[in-house]
Structure formats: structure tokens, C-alpha cells
Amino acid sequence: METQLDPMKDDLPLMANTSYMLVKHYVLDLDMDFKSKVIEGIIVLFFETGSQYKKTSSTGKEGCQSHFDETCKIRASEPCHTLVASVSACSSKMEYNDLAVCGKGEEDPFDKNGDHSNKEQASGISSSKDCCDTENHGNKDFLLVLDCCDLSVLKVEEVDVAAVSGIEKFTRSAKLNDVSKDMGNTRNQIVHELVTLPADCWKEQLCYFTRCSRAPGCGELPFTTGTWSLEIRKPGIQTPADFPHAIRIWYKTKPEGRSVTWTTDQSGRPCVYTMGSPINNRALFPCQEPPVALSTWQASVRTAAGFVVLMSGENSAEPVQLQEGVLSWYYYVTMPMPASTFTIAVGCWQEVKQKSQQSFTGAIQTNTEFSLPSSQAGFSWHEEICSHVEYPCRFQNPAARLEAVIPYRVFAPSCLMECCEERLLQLIPQCLSAAYTTLGTHPFSRLDVLIVPSNFSSLGMASPHIIFLSQSVLPGGSHLCGTRLCHEIAHAWFGLAIGARDWTEEWISEGFATFLEDIFWARAQQLSHDEEKGQQELKALLRWRRLRDEVQNSEEELQVLRPKKESTGELSESGASIIKYGLKAEKAFMQVHYLKGYFLLRSLSRTMGEASYLTCLQKFVHKFHGQLVLSQDFLRMLLEDNPEQKESGLTVENIFQNWLDTSGIPKPLLQESETWKDCQLVQQVSDEVTKWVQTDQRIRKSSRKKRRQDEVIFQKLLPDQLVLLLESLLEEKTLCPRILQCLKKTYQLQKQDAEV
Description:
There is one protein chain. The strands form six sheets. The chain has an eight-stranded mixed β-sheet, covered by helices on one side. Strands 17-18-19-21-20 form a five-stranded mixed β-sheet, covered by helices on one side. Strands 10-11-16-13 form a four-stranded antiparallel β-sheet, with no helix packed on it. The chain is built from 20 helices and 24 strands. The chain is 34% helix and 18% strand. It is α+β, with helices and mostly antiparallel strands. The model is unreliable at 1-7, 55-138, 174-179 and 357-381 (pLDDT under 50).
């Protein structure tokens, strides 16, 4: 299969055949070994038959649903017991003592394809002949293909879920047959009933996932590993419907694996974390990466005492001591998400606590009371049923809808604790509250913020329930720290709760987050209308300069926001595809998806008026959260709600043509760029640049004539103004050394933020 794909060295293949089998839940059991820099893992995957091979059940959906409801009612009052006996197929125990109740979602057929990742995907490829024969051919064993790289796979086996005590309640027949094929069908039926339990049975569902993951094996499965894939078969099984729907894989990561980074923190202590690799998590665990593969997961992680495990989970895990010197941490997720959003960080992190007298609860209550958006009650769509696949959704939870500041924690190496307390800790509730006033309900129930090691290659990265921030955002005042925090918080809505259905449309995540960071940060600072407008005009000019420079110095094909054009969103028959330029080194440093996406959204906001535009964003969030979208989903809704724009000639087609389907600077942006020079904050910078240039000229003359210079008074500048000043001075052919020294002294450059 891999030889037929033949991707360029810059392309990343997605090998998983998700159209045949679709993973619905992962159970991970991991041991961290810092000496060997290896994670030893056991993972159990629970599948549904994919869309290409979905078989109609003998009983209708209504009967199936009533069975689910009856099952939940029968065991509603029963405690969730985990197995404590040692099972030969599983080497260790998991701890499940920190389950929290979420809101109830609404049911909808799972018919959305996509992924929340920000990586690029281009041409789809059809590889069904190599990964499986269709039911019509019937002469080859079916191959389950998973995405896998830099892993040592040790063993694969089918899990005998029918052996779990009490599991017969998930079967429609009174007895479990001993006939091999019937047993296989029974096991698959049990998995089907388990993965399709209603949202309000999520606790019971997690409990049974745990118990099934520890069930004994019922036969090893032959497998082969390639550069990018793990292929598994069961001899004699020729269709996905008959293939085992619960499999267990023993594996080890490799020290050189590209999904995680083994390093030391700023205090010199060992740590490991997922750092946003272009290959996502396929070198951390075997998984399905194509867009359709939205799944839930739960994970138990064991590590030496003294280490803290943080993860993209709904619960704030508390460690359980398994034996002297060994702790176990457990996290879970009930909202289906792409495997690429699974995030873990293990290190000697310390929690940053507030020393002030105001308690955390008090801070939440204060912000909630202050920040309740008066507009929320006016929208009838707030009461609508959610359109996503069923899960415990916060948008349907009355308490969650009123929560302006979700519970948060901050972790950092010991040497950065004081800096985090002074700056970061106080900014988080302000930024969360500002986001809530703008978009409404927080999609996730809690937030951890971690200052990651100094080798982190960007300023921030958002994942469900956790944000990584670079140490570079901490020095130099609150501006950079606040804006970056707002950017990552915005990803909770755009990039995570709402994801791009096609990975090439990265702008849906990054463009929205860049646009919203300005709105959030202005509200967090409680700026006046004029102050907010001035700062946004200044920011627009800085971004314009970056976009102009990038367009002049990058390949044209990397500048297009919708490179697949009319083919965007299309998948191959098997679900496998290639991410065009997914491994291209230059791509990691490009900001075109951030900047062109931002300018498109800014242009639409200016055309429609900010208040009307933000109302449309709120409506879009409530309509599409928990789903995967294409550009036209947003643009069509926007124009339908603003018919006067359509009448004036603004259409989805001309937005595609002007903004998304072409390289270079969009034509509408060329016309707007001159207007920013009239902004007062920009004019102040222009005046200061003139002073510095004139001072430089006088210094050069005085050095020849030895005249004493009159002192020049320079104005105090905002951080973004200072960036513009320095960029403008760099455009001068020469500046004398004394000017550089004066600049450093006047603006205390060594104390400014990383942007400066």
C-alpha cells in the first residue's frame, strides 16, 4: 500500500482505512520510563463498522434506543466497580475515582467527516485494493490499517468482551453461543451497544470500557508494520463487519519518536510532552488520523513519584499510589475528538497558587456576575437541539451556560513559579471572562495552563482542557502574555469544538483565533471603543507588514488557503489520503493561514458591523459546535443572515476567488492597507521614527564638529507601537552605534516582551 501512495518527502500519508472501520474509543495504559526515554503502552481500541460496510440491524433504531434506555435505568443506581483481579492479558490496574458529571447532549446521526487538526491535506487516494477486498471479492482477508510511526509493536490480540461479568445485558439474545462465528458476532454486537450508549449513561459507559479493556484475549492477530502504518488481519475474516471490534495492542515508543519530546525543564528536571508534531500522535500510540475519526478516550499513566501528569482530559486527576514510589494518574474525555488533539505532559511541574486573600471561588463568582452577556437570553437558537453526534454537551447544560470563568490551574517549573503568579495567574480569569462575553458557553469544563520547556517551538498550543505556553510570553509586561492566552483560549471554540472538515482549511482554526484574540484582549483590558479601535488598527498594520513579507518570500502554492478548491472535503474510498506538504519544514514557520484568514474575517466584520458580525459568530458556534465544517458552511450562514450583503454582490464564490483560492495579497486588502497609516497610534510611531532619524543625522554631524546635542524627548510607546518603531528603523540604511545604545536605554529593550 505504501509503495502505491508514493508521497513526496514533504507529504504526510494518512493510512487508516476509516471508511471500513472507525475507532470510537481508546483505552490507554501507559508506563513512563525516563531513563530509557520510552513509553511502554497497552491500548485497546473499540470500533464501529465504517460507512462503506454498515449493515442494517435486524431491529429498528427505536427498539435499539429503548434497549439502551432500559439498560441505563436498570443500572442507574449501581456503583461502577472496576476489576481488581489481575488479568493475564493486562499487566496493570487503572484507577477510576475522579469522574465528574457533564451536561446531557442531544442525538444526531454521525454523518460529519473531518478533523480538528491544523495540518494540511491535499489529494485523496484510493487504496482499497491493498488494504482490503470488498465483500464481493471475498478471496482475501480484510486488513485493518492504523496510522503508526516510530513504534515497536509487540503483540496484537482480539479482546473477549463477552467474558466480562454482567456484559450479557448488552446482548439482544438471552445466551451467548459457543460457535466461533456467532461468538465473534456477539462480541461485535456488545461493542456496538457499548459505543452507542446515550450521553446520560457516560459514567456507566466508561466503566464498561474499563472492564472490557481488561478482559482476557481470545486469539492473537497477525500484523505487519510499515513506515507509516500498522496492518492487522484475522485469518478467514474477509469483511469489516466480521472483523473484531475490540482489539488490544502491546507496544513501545522509541526515544527518537517524533510525537513526543524528551527533554529537561527550565529547572533542569526531566520531562516529556507532546509538542505539536507534524505527524501528530502516531508515534505515541497506533490510531486513526483521517478527518472522520472522532473518538473518545481514557488513559491511565504510571510514573515515578515526584512527577505530575497533565493531559487533555475532562477531570482534574489526582494521583493514586500503586506501590512505594509509583503513582497512577487517570484522565478521560466524553466529547468525541480527533486523535491528534490527545495531549500529554509529564514532568516535575508545580502548581502555581494565588497568594492573595481572594479565593479562587470568589474570583469566579465576581467574574461571572460581571461578565454575563446580556445578549444570550435573546437568542432563540440557544434552546435548539444540538446538531452533533450525541455526547454530554455543555451547551445543553444550564449551569455550564452561566459559567463565565471555568475552573483553571497553572503549572510551571519551580524556577518560574513567581513570574507565573505575578503575571499569568491574574490574566486567565480576565481572558476567560472576555471570551465568554464574546462567544458564550465555554465548550470545555476546565483548563490547565502549562509553561512548557524552552525547546518549545512556538508561543502557544491549545488542546482540549489544556494550553501549552512558551516561557517567552512571561517577561515584559502583560501584553504578549495576554494576547497569546486569548489566542489559545479562542481555539476552544475554533479549532477544537469546531474543526476543519478538510485539513487544508487551516485558516478556519488559525484565522478565527487571530481575529478573536484582539476582541478578547480588548475586553479583558476593558478598553474604551476608541482605544480598542486604535489598537486593532495598529495590529492590522503590523500583520499586514508580516503578510507582505511572507508573500514575497515563500512559495506561491503554500499561500493558498483552500488549495484543493472544489475538491475540498472529498475523501478516497478507503478513507486514506495524503496531507500535501505536511512534512515541509518551511510550513512550520509560515503564518499565511493566520494572517489571510484574519484579514478575511476582519473585512467581513467591517462590512457588516462588529456587533452584527459577533452575533453571527455566536450563532455559528451554537449551530456547529461538536462538528466539522468547510469554509462554505460559515460563509453561507453569514450571508443568509445578512441578505443585504448578498444583494450588494458579496457571494461565497467571490470570497473564494478573492481570499481563499488564490496566492498573494487579496485584492480587497490592497485597497484597505493605506487607511491604517491615519490611525493615531501609527501616527505617533511615525513621529517618533522621524525624531530618531533626525537624531541619528545630528549625531553624525556633531561627531565631526564636536557640538553638544540638545536632549530629545521621546514619547512612551505601547508594545505594538515599539515593534512598529523598530521595524521602521530597521528599514533605514544605517544607524550609528550611539543611536542603538540610546534606543536600548530609552525603551529598556532588555525588559520588553519577546515580540519586541
